[in-house]
Amino acid sequence: MMPEDRFEDFVREHAAEYNEPPETPRKEIWARIQAERSKRRFQRQRTLFERRWVWAGAAVAALLLLGIAIGRFTAPESGGPPSPVVEASDPTTRAPVVPAAYRVAAEKHFGRAEVLLTQFRSDAEPSERDAEFSSWARELLGDTRLLLDSPAAEDLEYRELLEDLELVLAQIVRAATKRRMEERQWVADSMDQRGVMERLRLLMPQWPAGAGT
Amino acid sequence: MIPEERVQERQLIDRVLAGDAAAERALYDGHVDRVFRLAHRMTGDETLAQDFTQETFIRAFDRLPSFRGDAALSTWLHSITMSVVLNGLRKVKRHRQRETDLDGARGVGADPKGDPVLRSALAHAIDQLSDDHRAVLLLHDVEGFKHAEIATIMAIPIGTSKARLARARAALRRDLVSFAPEWTS
Predict the structure, then answer these.
(1) Which of A11, A22, A24, B1 could disulfide-link B36, Cβ–Cβ 3.0 to 4.6 Å?
(2) Per-residue DSSP letter, A152
(3) ipTM metric
């Protein structure tokens, strides 16, 4: 039997050869770390944003139900004086045209689109996140088209923004798939020429500072 | 670690926490080699080692605000590395076991004389250790950590670290007993 200390020396000496590592690929690992952290930040922001909207949607729905309930309880039974005739409102204003549920849905959609567009523009070059951008833009593109076919599009301002958004989202899908710089530039040009970001921010609901972050 | 190094380390961490990208890179550069080396020793697979190194630093940057400085940063980083590696290895265990078996079969068929065979047998014997025992052996005998540091890294009592090292060595001795005459000669 080998002596204890000699055996331990042997292990120390030769275990160093066990799974001997190659040179550390520092640059590659650093690049992967940066890409993965960026992707996770993006996912976290998206999750937070969507969670915030779920709560907002629930709150809006609760308010609507409360409003309906109050209306029912406070409405005159019957035989009261006839309601005054309300003149048709200005067709360019949203409130009377778009039913509340569609308005909420459209504003929620604009909020989500704003997050995507902001994130996409913050990546000056094709990146690891492009696959995610592409899939998210596709999803939003489908919602945009649904909203264009809904009563939400009866509002002129909504319709025009949805149409511009449809174009920009289609460009993002293409740019994120092709991963070419000029495609990204076209997206940026479209957004700037149409003032998409400014219009989205005007129409999406404003949140109090720090909400949901 | 001498106090001056400790202060520099704290300053570097503060800069990282303040959002200094260059400090992040400096922290990474200062520790990546040891983290990668340990991950590679434990996995024997460069791709897995890269994956685990990547995950270690992502977690480290996320958790850095909670680093209190009770242990050296390198010890703290190694504790994250070991946690990532052991959890990761559990997930790939079946795959790894198959490869280990194949490696072992190849070792048995090799030239039975000389050092390469003994070293191969040692590698095979280390492969056969449980992940926990292998980790302590590699940290102590290869990476040069003390039991107190290993205890922090593995989140175990110092006595457990010593016991695992003793059991690991005993298992290796048992597996390599047939080589004893070559040793002593």
Answers:
(1) A24
(2) G
(3) 0.79
